[in-house]
Amino acid sequence: MRAVANAVLYEGYLLYPYRASSRKNHSRWQFGVLGPPGAAAAGLGEEPGLTAQCVLRPLGADAAVEVAVRFLQLQTRTVQRRDADGYRTVDELTVAGRSWVGWDEAVEHEILLGPFPAGNACRPCTVPITVPGGEDVDELTAPDGAVVGRVLRTRWPLRAELRIGANGPGRLGAPVPLSVTVENTAPAPADSATALRTSLLGAHLIVTARGGRFVSLLEPPEDAADVVGTCAHSRCFPVLAGDPDPATAGEAATLLVSPIILYDHPRVAAQSAGDLFDATEIDEILTLRVLTLTDAEKAEARATDPRAGDIVDRCEAMTPAELQALHGVLIDPQAGGALVPAVPDGVDWWTPEADTGVHPDTDGVLVAGVRVAKGSLVRLHPSRRADAQDLFFDGRLARVSTVHADVDGDTHVGVVLLDDPAADLHAWYGRYLYFAPDELEPLGRNEET
């Protein structure tokens, strides 16, 4: 659970190619940013709060919850050269073969609050959160011991509050809705730089139940489904955390309130050797990209941030076997690490030999009680989840060419428009439009009006 929480905390902290000069790294803070009040309305930063409504099952009169508020505090690193008139800020300074550049670092914070009683009801409670600012100075010395510069690290004070409470008392064992809010309470900022300096970055929560369990909001137990249906969230996604316990399926003592959409009991893949600070990418791709950096680019990455240097060193030290372990593995996190789809030993999942149970040319799907398969005529009714181009096909007639099922169990129907002058070419090349079954109106196999 901690490994996942740390991945959430540092998501986007550094972006490939991990250099301060990269435009991508000029705007890095993307997830879980809680800006000071007024920043979002003024166009200077993000909204100030996040709110999670979860469901707790108290199992004893002394049930309680603890909340760990985790976030990063911006720390600006300034490099200064020493000359006859004192210190002067520079973009880069090289001392004894090591380069230093200006950069925005971050300091990790975890503030544990509680316990808050939750046996019968967790009464509404507000707790302040304060983090002091500060400045650290590191002198840079030449090999002869002369001070040639310095590095200033500056932090600004942070201020926020936690609000927690349940909707009302309930009997032991019965699900109780619980609301947790974290809100930035710093003064309104004058500019975007001030807004960022007084923001909570990568903010998320670890909520732990003592003498109770949280129920899954994704797949709730039957007796908690109605209560779960009343829950709403703002700028976060609560999921069960830690190793699942078969004896308490659908419930857990720990909840991770993440700014990133996750599944219950998320885990870091065993093949992942370490942080790349971009969990929405593939480790193999980023690792190979790091290995293509020139020596000068790697040196700049190391000068940008110690964590960037760790990434470069780790990628350079990987063995062929470790690189191969990153390739061609598709894991179902809900099936104990089983490959998806299940294929015979010695057969790669992406090969045609592994796909023996799928026959798009003959497979079909029931739509409004009518079997739709290759050759069926349908009228298209794209839903709101369709893209802008698909919406232009509303009401058009099409002929079904294939029916596919993906590894998530969803069905996709490939069609060719009847009135498309290039319909025969699209069918021959296999360039289909894809729709979900509920976006189709079956017309049979001969009706074309």
List key phrases describing it:
449 residues, alpha+beta, SH3 type barrels, 2 domains, eight-stranded antiparallel beta sheet, six-stranded antiparallel beta sheet, 9 helices, globular
Structural features, described:
This protein is of the alpha+beta class. The chain folds into 2 domains: 31-268, no CATH class; 365-444, SH3 type barrels, CATH 2.30.30. It is built from 9 helices and 23 strands. Strands 2, 3, 6, 8, 9, 12, 14 and 16 form an 8-stranded antiparallel β-sheet that branches. A hairpin with a 2-residue loop joins strand 17 (365-367) and strand 18. It is globular. The model has no long low-confidence stretch (mean pLDDT 88).
Brief rundown of the structure:
This protein is of the alpha+beta class.
> What is the CA-atom radius of gyration, in angstroms?
27 Å
What ranges have pLDDT less than 50 throughout 5 or more consecutive residues? none
Strand content: 35-45%
- Kindly report how far apart the N and C termini lie: 57 Å
Mean pLDDT rating: 88
Question: Which class best fits the helix and strand makeup?
Answer: alpha+beta
C-alpha geometry: globular
Q: Describe the sheet with the most strands.
A: 8 strands, antiparallel
Helix content class: 10-25%
Query: Total strand count, please?
Result: 23
Quaternary structure state of the chains depicted: single chain
How many H/I helical runs? 9
Number of domain modules: 2
Produce the secondary structure layout.
Layout: H1 2-9, E1 49-58, E2 64-83, E3 86-90, E4 92-95, E5 98-101, E6 103-117, E7 125-131, E8 134-141, E9 147-155, E10 158-166, E11 176-184, H2 192-197, E12 201-210, E13 212-215, H3 225-229, E14 237-240, E15 251-252, E16 254-258, H4 283-291, H5 295-304, H6 306-317, H7 320-325, E17 365-367, E18 370-372, E19 377-380, H8 388-391, E20 397-405, E21 411-417, H9 423-429, E22 433-435, E23 440-444
Antiparallel strand pairs: 1-11, 1-13, 2-3, 2-6, 2-9, 2-12, 4-5, 7-10, 8-9, 10-11, 12-16, 13-15, 14-16, 17-18, 19-20, 19-23, 20-21, 21-22
Helix pairs in contact: 4-6, 5-6
